[in-house]
């Protein structure tokens, strides 16, 4: 029962982790036990490896990484009614206190008590099995592969962002950043009805991947042209309806209103480690609406539905797959941030 353990900053090992086996020896009445099949490597996993912390969350003791998972139900609790042994599933990694004020308001993702996989002190799922509540475990149709299902977690961020933007059919959008989250946001914006989505990045390789996803995506290499100038040229100076900030860069965020049309909406997605400045005057003269998102809520079934119907295809984003036994190497590769990779995944032995 080996797990991929972040021992401390820069130190990973694939080893037995008896604490987790003990903690999950018993199954609650409304829990299921899942044999993991595929787990995606997230930027946050890599950041804990390279920096030992994300904001206030610090690695002070060994922690198992991974939170983007799909697998097969191998055992169900006595009161479970919607899942059966053998069901293929994906899992929502953040568990709120169901009785908290935030949860009762439907805002369970911003419940201060949320316990989220691979966020200290909560262990992740780069391990053979995990126990998870039925309510946060979603059955997959046969047409959705484990690899696609392990993309539901990052896709959920894009779908939540598009939902917050309140996209209408025929809207236009700019996505700043062509990393995994930028690209799932572009796909989500198109699925929500956008007529055109501009994707801006510094990396030509990433922009090539973005362009390959849809004829309705226009790449902008910010080394040679600004999103504002391209959008102004294409829209007779009006601007786009929505700007999604998916870089987490303070410099990009500072100019986020430039391509936005009057009355438009900016959605801040990228995590900002430090307080940032943006042009409040530019926001004001547009009466811009600014939305912030934190992870997602209520969107996993929607994501599974769109993968099943083909409304969204995440397969081109999965650029590399590693065997579980090569997990440590996979993280070394991921930490080097290869320009031509979007999402790397790890497959566990079945
Ligand atoms: Zn993630």
From TrEMBL:
Pfam family, one: ADH_N
Domain Enoyl reductase (ER): 10-337
Record-linked PROSITE patterns: ADH_ZINC
Keyword check for Transmembrane helix: no
UniProt keyword list: Metal-binding, Oxidoreductase, Zinc
Cofactors: Zn(2+)
EC assignment: 1.1.1.9
GO terms of molecular function: D-xylulose reductase activity; zinc ion binding
Keyword flag Cell membrane: no
Enzyme class: oxidoreductase
Family: Belongs to the zinc-containing alcohol dehydrogenase family.
UniProt protein name: D-xylulose reductase
Source species of the chain: Tropicibacter naphthalenivorans
């Amino acid at each position: 029962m080996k797990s991929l353990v972040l021992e401390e900053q820069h130190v990973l090992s694939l080893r037995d982790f008896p604490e987790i086996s003990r903690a999950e020896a018993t199954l609650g009445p409304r829990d299921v036990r899942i044999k993991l099949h595929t787990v995606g490597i997230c930027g946050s996993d890599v950041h804990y490896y390279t920096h030992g912390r994300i904001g206030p969350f610090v690695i002070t003791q060994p922690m198992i990484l991974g939170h983007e998972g799909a697998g097969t139900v191998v055992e169900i609790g006595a009161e479970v009614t919607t899942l059966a042994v053998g069901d293929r599933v994906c899992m929502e990694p953040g568990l709120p206190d169901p009785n908290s004020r935030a949860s009762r308001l439907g805002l369970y993702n911003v419940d201060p008590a949320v316990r989220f996989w691979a966020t200290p002190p909560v262990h992740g799922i780069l391990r053979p099995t995990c126990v998870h509540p039925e309510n946060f475990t979603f059955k997959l149709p046969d047409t959705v592969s484990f690899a696609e299902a392990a993309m539901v977690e990052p896709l959920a961020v894009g779908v939540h962002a598009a939902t917050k933007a309140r996209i209408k059919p025929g809207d236009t959008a700019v996505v700043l950043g062509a990393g995994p989250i930028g690209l799932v946001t572009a796909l989500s914006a198109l699925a929500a009805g956008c007529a055109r989505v501009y994707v801006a990045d510094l990396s030509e390789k990433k922009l090539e991947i973005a362009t390959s996803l849809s004829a309705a995506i226009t790449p902008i290499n910010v080394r040679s042209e600004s999103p504002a100038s391209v959008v102004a040229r294409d829209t007779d100076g009006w601007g786009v309806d929505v700007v999604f900030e998916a870089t987490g860069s303070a410099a990009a965020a500072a100019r986020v209103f430039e391509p936005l049309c009057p009355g438009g909406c900016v959605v801040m997605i990228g995590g900002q480690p430090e307080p940032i400045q943006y042009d409040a005057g530019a926001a004001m003269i547009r009466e811009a609406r600014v939305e912030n998102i934190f992870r997602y809520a209520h969107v996993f079934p929607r994501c599974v539905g769109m993968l099943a119907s083909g409304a969204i295809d995440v397969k081109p984003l999965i650029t590399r797959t590693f065997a579980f036994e090569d997990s440590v190497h996979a993280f070394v590769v991921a930490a080097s941030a290869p320009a031509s990779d979007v999402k790397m995944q790890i497959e566990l032995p079945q």
